[in-house]
Amino acid sequence: MPKKTLLVRRRSNSQSAGNHMTIAVQVTHLPPRLDHVTVCRSLWFRSRSPSVSDGRSESLGKMSGKDRIEVFPSRMAQTIMKARLKGAQTGRNLLKKKSDALTMRFRQILKKIIETKMLMGEVMREAAFSLAEAKFTAGDFSTTVIQNVNKSQVKVRAKKDNVAGVTLPVFEHYQEGGDSYELTGLARGGEQLAKLKRNYAKAVELLVELASLQTSFVTLDEAIKITNRRVNAIEHVIIPKIERTLSYIITELDEREREEFYRLKKIQEKKKIIKDKAEKERAKWANANEGGSEPVNLLAEDRDEDLLFD
After folding, report:
1. Residue 140, Cα to own-chain centre: how many angstroms?
2. SS3 state of residue 125
């Protein structure tokens, strides 16, 4: 008798709603029997049914009070929710305008950064050629430069620029003190050294400007991300939640008004029945007394009975 083996493999598919199970039955020299098909069907339904039920329970859980604000439905709550909705819409519009202003400035800074970097490459190339020319004509002047260094002549100060409530740092360079290298290259190579100083001064100016632009670029990038995140949160979370809460309050108030109308209608019907019954009793007593009716005592206590109805 050949040996039969039953292999069960479980495979999960992320794109489908649940887990699917594949059954492989290996039978040596024998066709598949009916019990194999029954096992396959039962396992397939077992693997399918829990995922569907779990999805339904999750959807029912999401449709509960998590998608709205927990408030007691009243006219005051409706007024408060309307004010909150208006405030959220105003805040979303203001944040969108802020994001547009920051994005416009961001693109301007990006354009300036590209232009400054291209200009920086040309200036540094000219400065490198000027340095080679100065060394060729004036010789090695590095020792003279090192000896004359006492304090920095080019300094940087920082200012602040405000763009739609975002503070951007702005760097500016300025020169302090006289030139301590005026007599350098007096014997030979003075023109090349002057050209060298001009080129490197321009390079320092561009470096300071580039540092200011890149710092503003990073700051604006973070500010735009935060602003867009707030806009998305208000637009896709807060405003729909307030709108669902308003819809819930309006539905409850309408239901309460319908209940009140039905209650008043039932009370009127009950009063009408009691009134008809009293008129019948009065007519009955009048017929019994043959027209002799007692006068109504206006000073007597006349109390209405409580009306109860199902």
Report:
1. 62
2. helix
| Rounded Cα gap, residues 55 and 216, in angstroms | 48
Helix or strand run (H / E) with residue 42: helix 34-62
Work out the pLDDT band at 182, boundaries 50, 70, 90.
low
N residues, the chain: 310
State pTM to two decimals. Answer: 0.57
Q: What is the DSSP string of 62-114?
A: HTSGGGS-----SHHHHHHHHHHHHHHHHHHHHHHHHHHHHHHHHHHHHHHHH
Is the pLDDT reported for residue 31 higher than 60? no
**C-alpha span between 93 and 233 (Å, rounded):** 13
Element (H, E) at 27: strand 19-27
Each residue's pLDDT tens digit, 77-128: 999 999 999 999 999 999 999 999 999 999 999 999 999 888 888 888 888 8
Residue 259, CB-side half-sphere exposure with 13 Å CA sphere: 6
pLDDT at 198 over 70: yes
Going from the N-terminus, what domains does the chain have, and what CATH number goes with each?
4-56 (no CATH), 75-245 (1.10.287.3240)
Distances (CA, A) of 250 to 29, 36, 63, 127, 295: 71, 58, 18, 75, 53
- Is the separation of the CB atoms in 255 and 126 below 8 Å? no
Sorted by sequence, the CB contacts under 8 Å of residue 234 that are 6+ apart come out as 88, 91, 92, 95
Give the C-alpha separation, 33 to 142, whole Å.
96
User: From CA 262, how far away is CA 253, in angstroms rounded?
Assistant: 14
The three state secondary structure string of 228-260 is HHHHHHHHHHHHHHHHHHHHHHHHHHHHHHHHH
pLDDT at 284 over 70: yes
Task: Quote helix, strand, coil % in the chain, to nearest 5.
Answer: 65, 10, 25
Tokens in use for 244?
């669902």
Long-range contacts of 292-295 (CB under 8 A, 24+ apart): none
